[in-house]
Amino acid sequence: MTSPVTRFAPSPTGRLHLGNVRTALFNYLLARREGGRFLLRIEDSDRARGGEELLEALLVDLRWLGLDWDAGPGAEDERGPYRQSDRDALYAEAYARLERGGRAYPCFCSALELEVSRKTQLAAGQPPRYAGTCRDLDAEARAARIRDGRQPSLRFLVESGQTVSFNDLVRGPQAFVSDDLGDFVIRRADGAPMFFFCNALDDALMRVTHVLRGEDHLSNTPRQLLLLEALGMSVPAYGHLPLLLGREGRPLSKREDSASLHQMRQAGFLPAALLNYLLRLGHAGAPDGWVEPVDLPSAFHLDKVGRAPAHFDEAQLLHWQREAVNRLNAVALAAWIAPAVAELGPDRLATLAAVAGRNLNFPTEAPDWAGVLFGELPPVQPEATLAIQEAGPAFFAAALEAYDSEGPDLAKIAALVRTRTGCKGARLYMPLRAALTGLTHGPELAPLLRAMEPHLLRRRLAAQAGHAGETV
Ligand code: GLU
Q: Which of 74, 110, 125, 151 could form a disulfide with 189 if both were Cys (CB 3.0 to 4.6 A apart)?
């Protein structure tokens, strides 16, 4: 294969979500894997819906995930501009060429006329397609309509009796009958280009070799193939990815904010976790275990992208988040939790990150652990209360004495308490953990003990020992 040129071509009409980010990732990996180029093209030809903030947000999201583009906004090259709203002259030139070659013609049919024609065809049991009303208008008839003030759309002329076929990179051989397409509009009456027209033309002009995109675009492909062929331009290989379905089996949508990349970033998901998760969505070529972001391209195999719809699975995502958190070093852990515990100074932040960082799924869990180490206990959990009650005040009196004589050394404290109370194993460690943290699970106890403010540690043991005046 010659070096592939791939692209991600989002329309800035909403936030990126997992579904379209997967499309971006697969295109990115396909290019990176083969030493090719990955382009970013902004499909804002439908200007009414786009917005500068959404565009900026999209770039931020992609950069955060590490999907850097070789050319695109902020990295223009001779194939640009990379925003469709800056490419009108190129579209105009292609329209003119199609008209000159007799492959496109102005259509003056009104919306009402088209609707009536559609209904008539349906009533007669025929598939609705353009009836060809304006196809053979001569120059004079066209001029007369323009004089009447009618604004024509531009239609592409589809020759009948053709089969449009291509080999989909994901779905295999595809064939469409041109008669089912009918002559289709490529420029609206108000002059706005149709999305699929710009999309196909830009792929050809940017010399894109592979297009991986959502299968909701499959029906555009035969029209795009016909257009490019009529323009004498090269056609990319298309691969249509199955949709990503959300919780209720519906496709994830840009407006369903729950799975937007932005929200996931705010929640503290790590980019490497998302990348590992996305790599496996509808792609069976990845190894079972963790893949470092730099190794993602070699873990991607286009022939292992499946046709079955992929389902969003929160448990899987959380699994990769845990894996990613476990791989953060102390500095990265501290940076990750810092926004959630902004009031901590640098020393306490570093301590918290070192002691409890790897036990967190999300930074929002950090304040509770800051409380355990330096302030107030979060509400004591019922299982913890139970463990405390089962151990009884004498156990904690022994623990407090041991702490006072040995300092925050878990092994020494445990040895003394064992001797005094006969408790061992979980019956020894669980009540200690419960009294000191309010939980029956959490980070390793020994470093926790060393990091905890001494007066808090004493107070918590004393309170359970039933010493007057002590509360947790
Ligand atoms: N702008 C289109 C979209 O966001 C891109 C389609 C394509 O990748 O060809 O769905």
A: 151
